[in-house]
Predict the 3D structure of the following.
Amino acid sequence: MAFIRSIAKIAQKFADVTPGRTAEYEFGVVNPRRDWEQATAAAEPAFEQGITQAIAKKSYGKGVKKAGSAKWAKGAKEKGTARWGPGVTLAKDDYAKGFAPYHDEIEKVQLPPRYPRRDPRNLKRVEAVATALGKRKEAELAKA
């Protein structure tokens, strides 16, 4: 029989040691062995194959059921809550850059007249914005 420490001991060491490796994490991000964009783009065929296999095996749904809502809620609350504000602050410029084309598109939309509240003709206003944004999204995807 192979000797391996208990899962409790391994998990505890992971929790104790890994947070102290922040400098190594940062070094790896700043000095990657391979360029992220190139390596990721080169991996697209493998990604597609993996996704196709996962769909065939229904892995996504199985993983969701295995994790369950309680695990998701615990992680979202205990990790996500603390990271939410700083993450949003750090994403400000990226958010503005990503939303700018859609902001510009909304600004250009000529809205039909507004009718009394709950008048079904008001849905034409929503339709005008949705159509313009859909076209802009397709144009942005075509650029990529």
Observations:
- Residues 59-90 form the longest helix (32 residues).
- The mean pLDDT is 95.
- The two ends are 54 Å apart (CA to CA).
